[in-house]
Design goal:
The complex is a heterodimer of chains A (299) and B (355). Chain A has 299 residues and is an all-alpha fold. Chain A contains twelve helices and no strands. Chain B is 67% helix and 0% strand. Classes of the chains: A mainly alpha (299), B mainly alpha (355).
């Protein structure tokens, strides 16, 4: 597994580069051809691009009109502002939910969450985000005259203002992850709780809290942790949809714009960035797995 | 091992009696052994959610196909006079901003989304099965190439790469379906490879080889039938995820292009007026959820029905037996198999290895 991932991280960049050339290559604008060296061979082009990268030249974004590296920096921060709270929220909630449903298997709550997670699976992210937006940002104001959250769109630098802006996009990002994670966590916790050493712990007279939260959680959590690591890179992909709905000026929105305007340099930077992050988190997941569970040997 | 050894009816093996995977009934006293197909069918129809899913899906298809026939409107017929109307007897779901009838558009969009889902799932399954089978059966270079390709595709951020391709090729249903399939065949390839790896060393394959069967005969007659159950499940689950992905892409404006409509583009069109008319966003949204829910239920049911390890059908008696067993398990401490269950399991294993 480890070797494969190292190999993937070595191959993913030139390849994603190669994908990206395709939409652009078929169009023959002279000026742009000059800018992106389109007259050279498709397979040679990545090399000149990487040579430029090494000297710190990411190119200019034609759709936004700034150097790509600046765009990526500001947009990256904005995306992180949504993605990190979403990640934390998703992690905490899915953890609590999976422990709850595992402890009270076949209870009303368990069934309710199972049903909800089924719907969560089937719900496309944009429908959920739109519903949240309408209900909490628009209708809520009409009903009560009080506006708890903004519809997105960064309105201020102040922490509380930011909190109002971030809440809805972050929640809608988080909920989708919770649906899958909590199901997974539930079955893994159930399996752990049924093991012999848990019975031993109970028999020793440990309190139920210690048994569940210390002994069982450690083992039950392992698959969840890997899911989270993988899910974080999923948040970046998910942000494309969410950012476009909440008009949040992050990477996802820049990506859509770059795609629409055929802004090759920016597109390239974004795809490479997300690609690298995804691979990095995959690697992290593998490493974490090894740390959390010493029985697993990477090789 | 009887576990993976589900062989559907095939007369390719001379030593065996006509294939009947006999499994004991709930009482363990079956009068007549049932074939695997019968059992699977029984289990499937005993699975309530799967039935709901199947019937729901059927209803949706009928609604999408037959519904527009009763409406006097065409899906792209504009009627500027009454645009942006709410639901009425004339326009069941209202009209959009250039006066097109939304019921007809929703039905057409839903059918379009379903078609894309099915096409993409089948293409992905075919590609995945062939590559997975080659990797699993021949190993060596095939295996290295396919596994690395799969890993490569799995680590790429899906939406980003999909968007890039869909933007270029995804205007029609075939283009979009193929783009989606290009990314989604990996799971099936993995599953098929895994199953084939685990069964290709079994004696009956060796026997086939010794009898002089060709590679293709072994692959298609002896190996692939064993994978069919897993594939059927994967297809249904794939259809669900394809529909979600497709509508997401279309929503972003990267998938289906006008004049065609999919459920995603309908949501996109309605998004601008969501404050004044949230219903227009909700209807296509709800249809997406309904389709995917039904498909997923169906997939779950299929998985349970085709699971070779499951024994009896979920008839009323078995359900009662299960409940009793659960109670007993609770009393005896969790995780233990009751004696009865153990006997059941042994019995069915014996019977199966006999057949």
């Amino acid at each position: 597994m480890y070797l494969v991932h190292v190999m993937v991280s070595a191959t993913v960049d030139p390849l994603s580069e190669f994908y990206l050339c395709l939409p652009r290559c078929q169009e023959g604008f002279d000026r742009i051809e000059q800018q992106y060296n389109l007259d050279t061979n498709l397979f040679v082009r990545p090399f000149t691009y990487f040579a430029d990268l090494l000297s710190g030249d990411f190119g200019d974004s034609s759709s936004i009109g700034e150097p790509v590296i600046d765009v990526m920096r500001t947009r990256g921060w904005n995306t992180a502002m949504v993605a990190i709270p979403a990640f934390l929220l998703g992690a905490v909630l899915s953890l609590l939910l999976s422990v709850y449903s595992a402890r009270r298997q076949y209870s009303v709550g368990d069934y309710a969450f199972t049903g909800l997670s089924f719907i969560g699976f089937a719900m496309p992210s944009f429908v959920l985000a739109l519903i949240l937006q309408v209900v909490f940002a628009v209708k809520f104001e009409q009903w009560t005259g009080f506006k708890p959250f903004n519809t997105g769109r960064k309105t201020g630098e102040n922490f509380f203002q930011l909190l109002r802006d971030v809440t809805l996009p972050a929640t809608s990002l988080a909920i989708l992850g919770i649906a899958a994670d909590s199901r997974f966590g539930r079955s893994s916790m159930l399996e752990t709780l049924n093991q012999d050493y848990i019975r031993t712990a109970r028999a020793k007279g440990l309190s139920e809290r210690t048994v569940v939260w210390k002994h069982a959680l450690r083992n039950g959590l392992i698959p969840l942790v890997t899911l989270w690591a993988l899910g974080f890179s999923g948040l970046l992909s998910g942000s494309v949809v969410t950012e476009s709905i909440f008009s949040w000026p992050g990477i996802g929105q820049a990506f859509l714009r770059a795609l629409g305007d055929a802004d090759l340099d920016l597109l390239m930077a974004i795809v490479m960035f997300t690609g690298i992050i995804t691979v990095a988190f995959n690697l992290l997941a593998d490493v974490l797995y090894g740390i959390l569970d010493p029985r697993i040997r990477l090789g | 091992m009887a576990d993976t050894d589900i062989r559907p009816n095939s007369d390719s093996e001379p030593t065996s009696t006509p294939h009947k995977v006999a499994v004991a009934d709930a009482e363990g006293l079956s009068e007549r052994p049932k074939t695997f197909g019968q059992l699977a069918r029984e289990r499937f129809f005993g699975h309530k959610l799967a039935l709901i899913g199947g019937i729901g899906l059927l209803l949706l298809v009928v609604l999408f196909l037959v519904g527009p026939l009763f409406s006097e409107w065409e899906f792209d017929q504009r009627n500027v006079r009454d645009r942006k109307q709410g639901p009425s007897a004339e326009h069941w779901f209202g009209t959009d901003e250039i006066g097109r009838d939304l019921f007809v558009r929703t039905a057409r969009g839903g059918w379009y989304s379903m078609q894309i889902g099915v096409i993409a799932a089948f293409v992905a399954t075919t590609v995945g099965t062939v590559l997975g089978a080659l990797a699993g059966y021949f190993g060596k270079l095939w295996d290295i190439v396919v596994t690395n390709l799969v890993n490569l595709i799995l680590t790429v951020p899906a939406i980003i790469v999909l968007s890039v391709f869909a933007n270029k090729y995804g205007a029609g249903k075939w283009g979009l379906a193929l783009v989606l399939a290009g990314l989604l065949w990996t799971r099936i390839a993995r599953v098929v490879r895994g199953v084939i790896l685990s069964i290709k060393e079994q004696e009956y394959i060796m026997a086939a080889k010794a009898a002089g069967a060709s590679h293709s005969r072994i692959l298609f007659r002896h190996l692939l039938p064993n994978v069919m159950g897993a594939i059927a499940v994967e297809i249904t689950l794939l259809v669900g995820s394809v529909i979600v992905l497709e509508s997401t892409l279309s929503f972003l404006g990267l998938g289906v292009k006008p004049p065609n409509a999919s459920l995603g583009t309908l949501v996109r069109d309605a998004k601008g007026d969501i404050d004044s008319d949230p219903l227009r966003v909700l209807t296509p949204g709800i249809f997406i959820v309904l389709i995917v829910l039904c498909v997923n239920f169906l997939g779950d049911g299929l998985r349970d029905a085709l699971d070779p390890r499951a024994t009896g059908a979920d008839s009323k008696e078995t359900q009662q037996a299960k409940k009793a067993a659960k109670k007993a398990r609770k009393q005896m401490g969790k995780g233990d198999m009751t004696v009865g269950q153990l006997q059941d399991a042994n019995l069915s294993q014996n019977e199966r290895s006999e057949s």
